[in-house]
Amino acid sequence: MIQLSLIGIGTGNPEHVTLAGVKALREADLILLPRKGEGKTQLVDLRRLLCRQILGTEGEQPKVVEFDLPTRDSDGDYLAAVENWHTAIAAIWGGLMEVHLPQGGRVGMLIWGDPSLYDSSLRIAERLSVAGSKVAVNVVPGITSLQVLTAEHRIPLNALAEPVQITTGRRLRERGWPADATSVAVMLDSGGAFETLDSDGIHIWWGAYLGMDQQCLIDGALKDIGATILKRRAELREQHGWIMDTYLLARQN
């Protein structure tokens, strides 16, 4: 039997890892760390730092193995490309588990934010096949970028007694403001999906590198600061070689 723990580790601040996450990491026999290319080395560096801080240097240590993520095909049908990408990643996971845990054991995967919110790890785990072993999946919840965004801006996620819609930049760009939504939280935006909206009466709370040392926050009326956010986003991406950001939009009366 292989026990795979998908461990939510928050958004880059080691203090955001829960006690349950710490326990799961310390009990693992094998920890798998993905590398996402030269432009995103800080992401694996942060995972390495978390492992060092949580596991220490004394006593029996889990084996830490790094691997390169395959590249998702950017041509053709988006959903089909994602499905193929997930299958390729699952094959890598399974192969590493067969090599390093031939008799079974406990595997830890460090997941940004929480595995349940716009993350592929659970879908990849469904495709996982390890020769000679059954795989049981355990989820350790983590702090999400939306929680850090609202905490840093000191705002609630939803208006009083109102729902909030969580969506992606791609969907916002293609379909516009969700019907009946007062507040819209946007994730996985490649940049500027809010430009497609009629900005009158919309307030935006934006954050990049949430929970990290280079965290950047901007908020205000969308019509006044939308261009400022895009300019700052481009500057930060140029400076660091990558960017992770999210934002909350709300219609103001």
TrEMBL record:
GO terms for biological process: cobalamin biosynthetic process; methylation. Signal peptide: none annotated. Residues 4-225 form the Tetrapyrrole methylase domain. It comes from the Bacteria. Pathway: Cofactor biosynthesis; adenosylcobalamin biosynthesis. GO terms for molecular function: precorrin-6A synthase (deacetylating) activity. Keywords: Cobalamin biosynthesis, Methyltransferase, S-adenosyl-L-methionine, Transferase. PANTHER family: COBALT-PRECORRIN-2 C(20)-METHYLTRANSFERASE, PRECORRIN-6A SYNTHASE [DEACETYLATING]. This is Tetrapyrrole methylase domain-containing protein. It comes from Halomonas huangheensis.
